[in-house]
Amino acid sequence: MIDVLLGLQWGDEGKGKIVDYFAGKYDVVSRFQGGPNAGHTLYVNGKKVVLRTIPSGVFHEHVINLIGNGVVLDPVSFRTEYEELSALGIDLKKNLFISEKTNLILPTHRALDKASEQAKGKEKIGSTLRGIGPAYMDKTGRNSIRAGDIKRSDFRNLYEKLKSKHLEILDRFGFNEDLDSWEQDFFGAIEHLHQMNIVSGEYFINDLLQSGKRVMAEGAQGSMLDVDFGTYPYVTSSNTISAAVCTGLGVAPSTIREVIGVTKAYCTRVGSGPFPTELFDKTGEDLAKVGNEFGAVTGRPRRCGWIDLVALHYTCMLNGATQLVMTKADVLDHFENINACKEYKIKDSITRELPFRLDDEKINPVYEIFKGWNSSSAESNTFASLPEEMKKYIHYIEQYLKVPIKYVSTGPGRDQILEKK
Length: 421
Ligand code: GDP
Ligand code: IMO
Ligand code: MG
Fold this sequence. Notes:
Elements: E1 2-7, H1 15-23, E2 28-31, E3 40-44, E4 47-51, E5 64-67, E6 72-73, H2 75-87, H3 92-95, E7 96-99, E8 103-104, H4 107-120, H5 132-140, H6 155-173, H7 180-194, E9 197-199, H8 201-210, E10 215-218, H9 244-249, E11 256-264, E12 267-269, H10 282-290, E13 303-305, E14 307-308, H11 309-319, E15 323-327, E16 337-346, E17 349-351, E18 363-371, H12 388-401, E19 405-409, E20 417-419
Parallel strand pairs: 1-10, 1-11, 2-5, 2-10, 5-7, 6-8, 7-9, 11-15, 14-16, 15-19
Antiparallel strand pairs: 3-4, 12-13, 16-17, 16-18, 19-20
Residues 7, 10-12, 37-40, 125-128, 130, 132-133, 220-222, 225, 236-237, 270-271, 296 line the site of 6-O-phosphoryl inosine monophosphate.
């Protein structure tokens, strides 16, 4: 069976930490979509590690980690990540596997991402510029090069053919940066990729499932960045919801058991696009400061606001979330009031549904207001001993979403998490 863990907001909900916390109970951790646009932060023995493409199960020796076919893999950033982990003593040779159908990100995909964002001007998506959009476009456009292709004798030809297509487009964009050193790095990284365990991901995982192994599928980004259901066009280029597990790993829907949704106790977004509960005042600044809200990949400041239950209700529905983890609850410890958006007021009507395009509407969030608890939640070592006002806040959210919050995270550390018994 597979349990899915994914983000319900605009990414950076703390998925990495939570996967690492749960991973001990699983045999396999697998990424099914996204690429090095993800930045999943873990603290292991007090040391901070940011994972990009490699699943967050790698700090548990017995766990097999699989990069699924739904992922787009940049050999260059993958090699860097691999070397960083090896330097920490992690033996990835033994328990990291890559699906042969994983699509590769080429240097020209990164260039295209940059050129396309520049051309969009004010309407730019705020992409991480890791080549994600162009790589997925080549996948659906049936032009892509996949991990298994590196073993083919005509690999270089495949590469040159795709590169020349890209260069034509780059030319039209007026892009004229020198790509030679990028290309050198790329071919060095391809040599490194040759040494990896490249497998038929779908047989690999189905065999493991057949033999009774427990799998955790680790989502990247968040449901509000899903290419179909997110705040299009300000989204990423993959499906980020639970349905993508099946296509991103090659498994049947019936193999999925729990869908664990992760949400911050408030809300953040990095990059452009609508964000109804965004705060532009001192409270927003305080959330950013206390929450240390800077992107794990790009270092960009994250926009901050109150929790948006209208959006969360929507993403619980899309994913079929069976339980929730609330992260960064400690960040709210010292606010006078805490707000939760329960409805949107659009023109004169009140709704609990998301409009077609959030950026076409002036959305006024309607808030339920909670008294702050003004004490340190990190000092509680059981759920029951959390501040009463915090428990009221949690209870309200559970009632609203009709999904239980089973865990509350009160700090970035591996063990700073409380289970509601
Ligand atoms: P991910 O992309 O969903 O894995 O999340 P990121 O790693 O991008 O961002 C989450 C950030 O919050 C990281 O810096 C984590 O170390 C940190 N974090 C995770 N859980 C908690 C928590 O409960 N409290 C606090 N204060 N920080 C947390
Ligand atoms: P994790 O897995 C937060 C955002 C970017 C941009 C939009 C498109 O760490 O939660 P892309 O590079 O995919 O073309 O960017 O999506 N974005 C993320 N925001 N966390 C992420 O991943 C993100 N991955 C992409 O900021 O707005
Ligand atoms: Mg992140």
